[in-house]
Amino acid sequence: MKTKTIITVVLVGLILVVASCKEKTKQVQKEVTKAIIYPSDVIPFMDEWKILCGDGTKSDSLVNFSKENFFYVENDGETDWVVYKTPNSGVTSRTSSNTRTELGQKAHWIPETGGKLTGTLKVMHVSTTGDAKVSSSYSTVIGQIHSDEGHENEPLKIFYKKFPDHEKGSVFWNYEINTAGDNSGRWDFSTAVWGYDFSNVGTSATSYPKEPEDGIALGEEFSYEVNVFEGMMYLTFKSKGHETVRFEKSLLKSDFSKKADVPEQILNTYYLRGRDGVERDTAYAGEVQYFKQGCYNQANRKSTKSETYGGDIAKQYANGSFAEVWFKEATVGAATSPNND
Amino acid sequence: MKTKTIITVVLVGLILVVASCKEKTKQVQKEVTKAIIYPSDVIPFMDEWKILCGDGTKSDSLVNFSKENFFYVENDGETDWVVYKTPNSGVTSRTSSNTRTELGQKAHWIPETGGKLTGTLKVMHVSTTGDAKVSSSYSTVIGQIHSDEGHENEPLKIFYKKFPDHEKGSVFWNYEINTAGDNSGRWDFSTAVWGYDFSNVGTSATSYPKEPEDGIALGEEFSYEVNVFEGMMYLTFKSKGHETVRFEKSLLKSDFSKKADVPEQILNTYYLRGRDGVERDTAYAGEVQYFKQGCYNQANRKSTKSETYGGDIAKQYANGSFAEVWFKEATVGAATSPNND
């Protein structure tokens, strides 16, 4: 009798516990069965952006939006990442012959009011084909400041580039002059962060410089911060096991307004091809800008002579003719005083 | 023997279930016992702002921030609201003799790049004392565009004002000219949304105009949208049971640049007191601006002759010498094309 009582009590207790537990389990399952994780679930700033994908897909409402094969979420076993992927040949924007799966900031600003963009990412792939003598071969742009008036030039492009035979690639950033007068004389001044800058190219179409020391491998995580505060652009690059690197550049006062100011790097490259401009004195002062972030593939058929398989995207993806970048964290917003860092 | 086995199985089962359930219960309790709901839990845009409270409290990190008696969350039985409350006398900003519990936008912009601010609110209280002949008596400003350079004037102030004996008050907006030359000639042109504009005052310190028809009562919900797109300011005001009202005003080209353009409203008020300026031709073009939102109390001891109880905040709160505004929704961000609305 005593034994039976115990059993009954235990059973009732068990049933109550199981019943209340079931309720909770149901809720948990409901969350799990939410069919798809969107980029906006991983990086919550998506309402601040529009997108152009490598197949020409455009959207200006990116909350709960994804596009198969171009803009979606992958999990690497630890973390959800937003994937930006785009082939060497696809549909391009009005002003470019390069495809992109890239965000464009809705809010616009001028250097004087500024803004801040951050990103933590790993580049998973760049085009494996191209002419080694061309600076933009095997590279993709992972963040930009883009002008929306005048020449619509780019005060900042952050690049990742890796030569085909190398394990490690380079991260560098380019400043495009806001050309005085005709924009046909424009050029990009490039600065290495880790590895080489843009100007380091092969001696022939198929010969590569030696592998950079302190380079960044495909799949290796790094982060950048672009903070334009009161007209000064502050850049910070960080990666575990690498030196943190910082830069400052005024967007209000040119460093390149006289022929005598033009750097050796430019005289040895652009100037030889007749791209021999100088910059307006006030650089990008007062000119409307916006940020871009994602994967702006610099490989194409024309200038880098990269494989494009007649524009067949599936074939390009299957044969290395694409660029792919994964971001796990990113922010966009107001500039911050660099003294508060 | 069989009975004993059953008991053992049941007990082991019970222990396992209880153990796994306890884990979940702990998590649930953790969420519930989160002691306080912050304004940033109600309106998620708080990372875009800093604040100045009516007692001089300042903060530029408003995530999980609240300030008792000034900036906190109230529930009206249905909805959580962010409360902005401030006395007639307290600590003021550098450029004002009025206290405020008000957000200031971190990101700055110019009219050409623009921006958008929205808010859904109810005004719960305005000062019950003051001189009825003074336009700013019994009023509070609930949203602004504020210039950050030049004269630091205000292209937009949205007001709520209610005379002490009235049940219904007025919503109106003021445009302050970006004065040509010396700013001592500046003035505000006021436009009624519902009820009266700023210029409608009492004939003596204690006599009020008749109650406005179609006014807004304390506790009555309404919303505003301020969208500055390509230099044009688009205003939309909505409230259930009231007509939706829209306005457009250029911030790039003045309507008031010649004496002949000065409106009757201004000639009959400011001009009689020697505030007889005109506006620069280009209005606020190219001038850095930011949004403000909250409660900027227009009552004070000096100009509106409102009660301040020697600056004792508890006494002011107990005796109607304060303003209090509740917001339940608000957004700030990029401008949108008015054609997409």
TrEMBL record, chains A, B:
GO terms for molecular function: hydrolase activity, hydrolyzing O-glycosyl compounds; lyase activity. The lineage of its organism: Bacteria, Pseudomonadati, Bacteroidota, Flavobacteriia, Flavobacteriales. It comes from the Bacteria. This is Polysaccharide lyase family 7 protein. The keyword Lyase applies. GO terms for biological process: carbohydrate metabolic process. InterPro entries: Alginate_lyase_2 (IPR014895), ConA-like_dom_sf (IPR013320). Residues 47-332 form the Alginate lyase domain. Keywords: Lyase. The keyword Calcium does not apply.
